[in-house]
Q: What sequence folds into this?
């Protein structure tokens, strides 16, 4: 569905490769050839799904692997962080399905960092919570994860908030909940970032790559994700 929102020709592919489902088969011809979703999961230190639609969340929670993005998630090494930035209509965000699916990821032992959606005018015209967090907020969280390997926690409890707590409030709560850490020298990372998009967030990809000083891969999922 990403291709319904963006023109691939407008993307800066020289610094940010764009991979779709068709790329999965393009480089595999025989046994022993590289398999793209396996290569991607090996390459990245953190997997970012931004924006995360309700449909892709449901697929992830149930282990479906029907496109490049969900294949990467299914093969992901969950000792490494998975950062998700939900984006959906307010009613879908408040749905018990959303809470259940996020809970499922957590119960499976997945290291999930949730960047909660914000309140604004949505694509459908409604006003409410459901818009993806700003790219710089997502990028800052990626930077924090990469600089402190193993020192991360969910930005909010799994599932939609049960009250009107603001996005900023959730960020403050996370900071208060995290134990104080002694400062450590930065550790070099093998690869900086993999950004997989369920829909379209090229701004987030570019912003994250710039902030982390690393690379970004945008893997667009097809078929109503």
A:
């Amino acid at each position: 569905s990403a291709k319904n929102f963006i023109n691939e020709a407008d993307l800066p592919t020289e610094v940010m490769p764009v991979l779709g489902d068709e790329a999965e088969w393009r480089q595999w011809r025989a046994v022993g050839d590289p398999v793209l979703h396996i290569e991607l999961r090996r390459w990245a230190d953190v997997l970012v799904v931004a924006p995360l639609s309700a449909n892709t969340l449901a697929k992830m929670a149930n282990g479906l692997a029907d496109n490049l993005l969900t294949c990467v998630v299914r093969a992901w090494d969950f000792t490494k962080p998975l950062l998700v930035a939900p984006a959906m209509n307010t009613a879908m965000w408040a749905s018990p399905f959303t809470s259940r699916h996020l809970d499922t990821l957590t119960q499976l032992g997945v290291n999930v960092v949730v960047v909660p959606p914000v309140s604004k005018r949505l694509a459908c015209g409604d006003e409410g919570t459901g818009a993806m967090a700003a790219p710089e907020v997502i990028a800052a969280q990626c930077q924090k994860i990469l600089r402190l390997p193993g020192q991360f926690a969910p930005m909010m409890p799994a599932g939609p908030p049960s009250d009107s707590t603001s996005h900023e409030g959730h960020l403050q709560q996370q900071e208060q909940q995290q134990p104080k850490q002694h400062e450590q020298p930065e550790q070099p990372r093998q690869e900086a970032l993999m950004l997989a998009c369920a829909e379209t967030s090229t701004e987030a990809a570019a912003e994250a790559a710039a902030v982390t000083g690393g690379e970004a891969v945008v893997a667009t999922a097809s078929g109503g994700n």
